[in-house]
Structure to design on (548 residues):
């Protein structure tokens, strides 16, 4: 182990209180599986002071990042791509050079089993995207912080852009040998199972269910948008989101047990109790 | 090239006249892109004599295979797995030892661009399944005919079975190092793009559209189940199948131009003209 516990970190991102809530549950899920690595959250000024206090209790480090600096903003405007603003925010993770190896996790992921072995992988390792599996999904990826890489990706984003307008398109174009070069950089799908996977191929989902380590609630509707019944202690699934009821319930169990009791309800006006 | 044109073959399968119709369109699509390899269709007794005549005109070789022999049938009954019957039928392709290298194509696939370079790949090469991308999709795969492999897979099927009750679960369990061992055995997704992919990740679909070589109409509703309007020459898409209109239209264009003019309409009672 050596000092890997201090040199390696899980990293997530929140630009507002809703995603910060996701980060709170995620952070707790990492603690619950007893990770030996640091856990870090990158925040923008969109996250309230109160929410920062909550995050402080779970995360080892809070890092404030700008959404994008003024010069970039001018360049983006020239390119007519103001939408890349948020994309750039995730890329800031490469600036975390106090760590030698990191695993980025979207704030809408949930860790079910200890996954510390991911730190043995090299940059850029990621799992296939279920929608177009020659692309990796950028919700979970292993990377190596480096200012040089940071600048290269930023320059690439500004000259080439992103084919999907988000970080996934950008990172797939930048790390464009992922699908063909090194099988070691293909994380098993169990490290980034989209919550809809039970729907797209149920027998495989059932077959591999016990092996799933990280779940990812992709799509516009996140776990915190689903209503929760406090009497029955169950979440109400919206069928059109395709999210797996079992995983949604797990998210809510963690939230209600570890986060909600010490949370000022005015911080989360978007949460609906029934 | 040498004699690869006679030693290597595309192989498909039809157990009834509906899938035979798929095979007819597929065979024509292979001719249209001027493949230099043989094209072979495996048939069971469920395919009519008239349909065999049609296939004869397009395919280099028709091979009749049994669905399953009596001894297997007894074993399957003992195992309570009569559903593996059809699964076993596809596995017969390993018996085609008159060829040294083959590419299997489901009868519900369509070749858009010449893909003869697939014969440079080794067994077992296949593209990821969009539903669970650590499994390969068994609608397109490179294999090497061998009686020994045939018997091993059959024995495996009888002892272990298939986690999805079909050939995909069986082949993924048998070739279970596919997802972790050799990136060369990961065919690019462009060789087996499910017709629903435009829906699951539209920006990637759009970005890679021009590169797509083989389309696969997975699911219960096949191109030949969609109604076709002879006046406007357009196919009516059923939205719930999620099939891409553009690809469905392509299938129908090929069918109407090359297959339908010489087809006795009584052979295809399932086809609906509007
Ligand atoms: O308004 C936003 C949108 C995204 N994110 C961060 O960026 C990640 C990627 O976005 P999202 O998970 O919504 O995309 P999806 O996984 O649904 O494609 C989130 O998990 C958050 O960590 C954020 O902080 N604020
Ligand atoms: O009744 C059947 C079912 C399947 N097949 C063959 O087996 C393949 C796999 O089945 P299908 O394509 O229906 O499965 P999907 O791709 O939808 O999972 C078909 O393309 C055909 O070649 C067949 O001949 N008769
Ligand atoms: Mn996400
Ligand atoms: Mn098929």
């Amino acid at each position: 182990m050596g000092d890997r516990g201090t040199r390696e970190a899980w990293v997530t991102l929140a630009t507002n209180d809703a995603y910060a809530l996701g980060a709170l549950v995620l952070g707790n899920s990492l603690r619950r599986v007893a990770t030996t690595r640091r856990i870090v959250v990158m925040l923008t000024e969109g996250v309230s002071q109160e929410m920062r206090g909550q995050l402080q209790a779970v995360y080892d480090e809070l890092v404030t990042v700008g959404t994008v600096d003024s010069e970039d903003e001018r360049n983006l405007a020239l390119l007519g791509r103001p939408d890349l603003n948020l994309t750039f925010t995730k890329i800031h993770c490469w600036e975390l050079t106090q760590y030698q190896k990191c695993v980025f996790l979207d704030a809408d992921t949930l860790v079910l089993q200890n996954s510390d072995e991911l730190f043995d992988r090299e940059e850029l390792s990621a799992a296939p995207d279920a929608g177009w599996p020659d692309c990796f999904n950028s919700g979970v990826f292993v990377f190596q912080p480096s200012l040089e890489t940071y600048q290269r990706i930023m320059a690439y984003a500004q000259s080439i852009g992103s084919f999907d307008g988000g970080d996934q398109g950008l990172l797939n174009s930048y790390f464009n040998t992922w699908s063909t070069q090194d099988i070691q950089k293909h994380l098993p799908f169990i490290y980034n199972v989209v919550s809809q996977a039970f729907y797209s191929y149920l027998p495989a989902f059932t077959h591999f269910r016990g092996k799933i380590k990280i779940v990812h609630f992709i799509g516009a509707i996140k776990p915190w948008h689903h209503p929760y019944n406090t009497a029955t202690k169950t979440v109400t699934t919206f069928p059109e989101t395709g999210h797996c009821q079992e995983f949604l319930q797990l998210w809510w169990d963690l939230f209600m047990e570890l986060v909600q009791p010490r949370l000022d309800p005015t911080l989360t006006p978007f949460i609906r109790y029934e």
